[in-house]
């Protein structure tokens, strides 16, 4: 008679093998969904998750970006707060978006990426941004497709940008400029193949978290095996 323990071991073995192999070489996290709809977090210079330059680079290494995301009646509210740095004030903030987001004026009501932006932002520019005079220190060979919050009003330490979106959060990039030569960006901006989630921040996308097909197949096979074994035991 087959023991119950043997049934469970044989059914769960494929799933355990998948987990072990996934820990050997993790997949890149850029562009993948964040864990939950209501989600808060932060990234800091001191932990090596933010790269800074110009006057934003100091021995204190206390530059921090914090985000808070809430979901209410199908609408997400995103808030990004910048703390730990002083002069110069922020000039602009570039936020990564899923590539099918378009100019805010062209967004349909049921697919808006960024709208109802808080006070303190002069302009919104949409497109692909990269190295150049207006983005000092931007890593060579990298770019961000998304929105630029420009002409920020008195955006010193503690400045926040809040907006609504119909897009669920994913892992992505940011870049900020202060004055003429000061900057900061997430460490993953120059390495989208990184498997370290701490190198990225939460940004709007259009996807939601679902189990991978391979995981679903193994889980279904395992449960079917358990059920068949129990029937044989009875």
From TrEMBL:
InterPro entries: Ice-binding_C (IPR013424). Keywords: Signal. It holds the Pfam family PEP-CTERM. Residues 1-26 form the signal peptide. It comes from the Bacteria. Residues 209-233 form the Ice-binding protein C-terminal domain. NCBIfam families: PEP_CTERM. This is PEP-CTERM putative exosortase interaction domain-containing protein.
């Amino acid at each position: 008679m087959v023991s119950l323990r043997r049934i469970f071991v044989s059914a769960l073995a494929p799933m355990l093998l998948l987990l072990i192999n996934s820990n050997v070489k993790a997949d890149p996290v850029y562009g993948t969904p964040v864990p939950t709809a209501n989600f808060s977090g932060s990234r800091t210079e001191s932990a090596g998750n933010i790269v800074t330059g110009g006057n934003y680079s100091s021995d204190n290494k206390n530059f921090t970006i914090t985000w808070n995301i809430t979901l209410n009646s199908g609408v997400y509210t995103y808030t990004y707060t910048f703390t730990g740095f002083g002069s110069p004030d922020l000039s602009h903030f570039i936020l990564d978006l899923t590539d099918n987001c378009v100019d805010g004026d062209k967004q349909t009501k049921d697919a808006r990426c960024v709208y109802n932006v808080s006070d303190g932002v002069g302009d919104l520019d949409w497109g692909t941004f990269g190295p150049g005079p207006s983005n000092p220190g931007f890593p060579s060979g990298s770019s961000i497709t998304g929105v630029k919050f420009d002409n920020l009003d008195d955006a010193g330490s503690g400045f926040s940008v809040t907006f609504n979106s119909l897009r669920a959060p994913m892992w992505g990039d940011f870049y900020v400029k202060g004055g003429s030569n000061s900057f900061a960006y997430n460490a993953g901006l120059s390495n989208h193949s990184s498997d370290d989630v701490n190198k990225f921040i939460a940004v709007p996308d259009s996807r939601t978290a679902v189990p991978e097909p391979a995981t679903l197949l193994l889980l279904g096979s395992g449960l079917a095996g358990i059920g068949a074994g129990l029937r044989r035991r009875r």
